[in-house]
Write a structure and sequence with these properties.
By secondary structure, the chain is an alpha/beta fold. The protein contains 13 helices and ten strands. 51% of the residues lie in helices and 12% in strands. Bound molecules: iron/sulfur cluster (SF4) and zinc ion.
């Protein structure tokens, strides 16, 4: 019968690709939220007393995570601070920042907006304009390096013990497949729900939505009528990640469980990969900014220095 498997309501909004389970809007919201909270407990991503810095872009993933983590905050289990990074992407980021401010206010969560300009004296748009043709294709690499730098720095400034990001199942399988195809074994040893390092200056990073498909995140925010930024970043379409994303989505049409099986298989293999290929980096401090770095300069400072030398 075409009714919700949990409550019998005839208003089905999803038939799960993996299990075939049919759910109405309320039961879908409840079961997704419970799944994320269960994943958090099972993988010990968050402990009582943690102060969690949530990377809040205003997009669907981070707003859904705000919705779920704020329940832990309201139960007095964690302290939560949302941080929005303005990379300086004209015509795109402004709306995301606005929606991040609105959502942080709605959930009563402490919120900081910080920018590339403030920490690096430049914007992502300028970085792309001032560099060779390749720079556009590498936008996500630069953006990721600078964002990680900022989150880590700000997490220490606000006393956060964890950095939570809204990476979903699609993002994580893209990372796995990309690293395989590029033969980047070192990268594979670092992919997972929780990443920590020996350096105390690196805050532990967690991905509570890692097992939720992007499609279900979209459905969650629509079902809950959350106010989110749906526009895509103008640089996203030109990356290798975007090519892999399109390929995986196409595969999913005929093989609905392919992303889960990629993730499950990888998670089983990871301890072996780590044992065999994991390098324990020796961390020191970057000579320029003082952030932890395995070489003389951290990645952010070496990009900035390289561009300074070229100009
Ligand atoms: Fe940055 Fe790439 Fe995301 Fe755009 S798509 S915000 S360039 S990481
Ligand atoms: Zn540095």
């Amino acid at each position: 019968m075409n009714v919700c498997d949990k409550c019998g309501s005839p208003e089905i909004i999803i038939k799960k690709k993996q299990s075939g389970q049919k759910l109405c809007s309320n039961c879908f919201i409840e079961s997704t939220k419970n799944k994320v909270l269960k994943d958090i407990r099972r993988q010990k991503l968050i402990e009582k007393g943690d102060k969690v810095l949530l990377g809040l872009s205003g997009g669907k993933d981070s707003v859904m995570l705000l919705d779920i983590l704020s329940t832990l905050k309201n139960r007095g289990i964690i302290d939560l601070v949302a941080v929005t990074i303005d990379e300086g992407i004209e015509g795109y980021r402004e709306e995301g920042v606005e929606l991040a401010i609105k959502n942080a206010e709605k959930y009563g969560v402490e919120h900081k907006v910080v920018s590339f300009k403030q920490y690096f004296g430049t914007t992502l748009d300028k970085i792309i304009q001032n560099n060779s043709e390749d720079a556009r294709r590498n936008a996500c690499t630069y953006c990721g390096v600078f964002r990680r730098w900022i989150f880590n720095r700000v997490s220490r400034e606000v006393g956060a013990t964890k950095i939570a990001t809204g990476h979903n199942l699609d993002d994580e399988t893209q990372s796995i497949v990309m690293s395989y195809l590029e033969g980047n074994i070192q990268n594979l040893t670092r992919i997972g729900p929780k990443s920590q390092s020996k350096s105390e200056k690196f805050t532990v990073k967690i991905k509570p939505l890692r097992e939720i498909p992007e499609r279900e995140i979209g459905l969650y925010v629509i079902a809950k009528e959350l106010d989110v930024h749906f526009a895509g970043c103008p640089y996203a379409g030109e990356s290798f990640r975007a090519e892999i994303g399109t390929f995986l989505k196409q595969l999913t049409n005929d093989h609905p469980t392919i992303m889960y099986s990629t993730l499950r298989g990888f998670d089983r293999m990871k301890p072996v990969l780590k044992k065999e290929f994991g390098k324990e980096s020796v961390f020191d401090e970057c000579e320029i900014c003082g952030e932890p770095s395995a070489s003389k300069l951290c990645k952010a400072c070496s990009f900035l220095k390289q561009w300074e030398d070229q100009s």
